[in-house]
Specification:
Elements lengths: L22 H4 L11 E3 L7 H5 L2 E7 L6 H4 L3 H9 L1 E2 L12 H10 L3 H4 L5 E4 L4 E4 L3 H4 L10 H7 L4 E4 L15 E3 L7 H11 L10 E6 L3 H7 L4 H24 L3 E6 L5 E2 L4 E3 L10 E3 L2 E3 L3 H12 L5 E4 L20 E4 L4 E3 L15 E2 L14 E5 L6 E2 L8 H9 L27
Parallel strand pairs: 2-8, 2-9, 3-19, 6-7, 6-8, 11-16
Antiparallel strand pairs: 1-7, 3-18, 4-5, 9-18, 10-17, 12-13, 14-15
Helix pairs in contact: 9-11, 10-11
Bound molecules: adenosine monophosphate and zinc ion (2 copies).
One zinc ion binds next to loops.
Length: about 450
């Protein structure tokens, strides 16, 4: 299969300077040598059909709660919403409302238990191995991921893609990697990320990616450290809004037929109280654990810990995995553990404390991961504007699994069946998608 297997990785062939991105505005090509390490996998040129397709720039603002834009006067985002489509009451993340599960849901249309990233860190009883977002070996190993990410779908249909970071983009999944991608590095400035996206759009038509993802780490960091209502978080909200404004100006100047879609993965809430540590209520001897996830090895162990935790504390409920409420979509994957503990409020829950002799750290001021139905603070953001979208549309809160068929439609791609449906957002499209609605 084209582009499969080892694929060769040339060092960055693309260039970006921090001054780039203003190129169109200044009427000149600012391509220059880069310090941004971009990987290039040669999948050949865009097909003739792909060259005729529109461009989608999919932006994620990590932890940008649904109400931040209005609250903090994020003028560029609000303008995009006004000129295009907006979810003023937010978009519903999938459970758990964490970064990797939701980013990967957005690009696969699958609930976490169907795409496999059921948390940021988890254990797989069948593999007898652990996945963690801080473990580069796991993150780049495609065997952890199911589904067909949008970039793999596009590449398989002759369309080139690029990821300026996105969970999953560093692994070969469903036979492909993005044609251009970068290894995650928090220290790469958000300005440089925007500049790289605009550089990609200046490539010759044959090489120019039609789907581009862009990930901003803010305002999630500030939300955790200082809490959602802190001045630092509000400043970060305005900062990323300014960057979206710069991106939008660059896209407008390109004169390309683009759809700009800005989403977030989840919201943020203020944490209430200190740690709730499960092994204070139940003997977890013999259990693998990851965060608050519990992996009982035998049926007797699972039942014993379930019984011990059942009436242990008001901060959580516990279920045998098969009995987790259906709305949570958290009962079908062994990686979810058994029994399953679900917070009843904004509490910091963990299976175990630090190892003996190691210092403990208080929970962060802000957190997420909770059930969005229980906690509206978990709701994410959604703004979109572009050539395929009707102006001045608002949509009611919708589940983020529905983005995938909608994005695939805008790119002219044939999408596989997923947990999402094109019907949910079809009303926002100039061409209502009736022909391809699932
Ligand atoms: P959380 O907000 O707790 O769900 O985790 C978010 C963390 O994921 C942030 O600290 C980010 O720096 C980190 N992160 C985001 N994207 C990636 C990525 N592609 N690879 C590794 N870590 C990432
Ligand atoms: Zn996040
Ligand atoms: Zn976070």
């Amino acid at each position: 299969m084209r582009g499969r297997a080892a694929g060769w990785f040339a060092p960055a062939i693309l260039a970006v300077g921090l001054a780039a991105g203003g190129g169109w505005l200044a009427g000149q090509d600012t391509r220059s040598e880069t310090s941004l390490p971009v990987e290039h996998v040669d999948h050949g040129a865009n097909s003739a059909a792909a060259r005729k397709a529109h461009y989608v720039v999919l932006v994620s603002l990590d932890g940008f709660r649904w109400d931040y834009a209005k609250r903090d006067g994020a003028t560029h985002l609000l303008e995009i919403g006004k000129e295009g489509v907006w979810a003023p009451e937010g978009m519903l993340p999938s459970f758990p409302s964490l970064t990797f599960p939701n980013h990967y849901t957005i690009v696969t249309g699958l609930y976490p238990e169907h795409h496999g990233l059921v948390a940021n860190s988890f254990y797989d009883p069948a593999k007898q191995a652990r996945y963690a977002i801080s473990d580069a070996k796991a993150v780049t190993d495609g065997s952890w991921y199911s589904g067909v990410p949008l970039w793999s779908l596009a590449e398989s249909q002759g369309m080139r893609t690029a990821c300026m970071f996105w969970p999953g983009s560093e692994a070969e999944i469903a036979g492909y990697r993005p044609t251009y991608y970068a290894h995650y590095d928090d220290k790469i400035s958000e300005e440089a990320r925007v500049a790289q996206v605009l550089e990609w759009l200046k490539l010759p038509e044959e090489e120019r990616p039609h789907l581009i993802t862009l990930y901003f780490s803010e305002p999630d960091h500030e939300g955790h450290e200082f809490g959602p209502d802190a001045e630092q978080t509000r400043t970060a909200v305005r900062k990323v809004d300014g960057l979206v404004g710069k991106l939008k100006a660059g896209l407008d100047a390109s004169k390309l037929p683009v759809d700009l879609v800005v989403v977030s993965d989840h919201g943020m809430t203020k944490v209430d109280g200190g740690w709730v540590t499960l092994d204070q209520f139940a003997d977890l001897n013999g259990f693998e654990t990851a965060g608050a996830l519990l992996y009982g090895k035998t049926e007797a162990d699972r039942e014993r810990v379930y019984t011990a935790l059942k009436k242990a504390a008001p901060e959580f409920k516990v279920y045998r995995r098969r009995n987790v409420p259906g709305e949570l979509r958290y009962s079908e994957n062994e990686r979810e553990g058994d029994p399953v503990v679900i917070a009843t409020g904004p509490y910091a829950i963990r299976a175990r404390g630090p190892e003996a002799g190691k210092p403990d750290k208080a929970p962060t001021a802000g957190a997420h991961g909770y059930d969005p139905a229980l906690m509206p603070e978990m709701k994410a953001s959604f703004f979109a504007e572009g050539v395929d979208l009707l102006p001045g549309h608002t949509v009611l809160p919708f589940e983020n699994v529905n983005l995938y068929p909608w994005l695939a439609h805008m790119l002219g791609l044939r999408a596989p069946k997923t947990d999402g449906s094109l019907n949910v957002l079809a009303g926002t499209l100039r061409d209502d998608g009736a022909e391809t609605a699932q």
